[in-house]
Amino acid sequence: MTSTTDTILAIDFERYKSVACVYQRSSREHVFHAFDTTPEELHKLLGRRSLGE
Question: What Rg value do the Cα atoms of the chain yield, rounded?
């Protein structure tokens, strides 16, 4: 079974601050998000309708 997705999410977790990179394969666009390393902030990032926001 093969599945493809257009969005790749990479997260670099650090103790106090983390960075997420959202990469759109079709357009080759990327967006970086810096956030506090807390469960609440991670939940906000993952809960966005479009990670490119």
Answer: 12
CA distance 14 to 4: 29
In a domain, 27, yes or no: yes
pLDDT digits (tens, 9 = 90+) for 8-48: 999 999 999 999 999 999 999 999 999 999 999 999 988 87
CA distances from 52 to 1, 2, 26, 28 (A): 28, 25, 13, 12
In a domain, 12, yes or no: yes
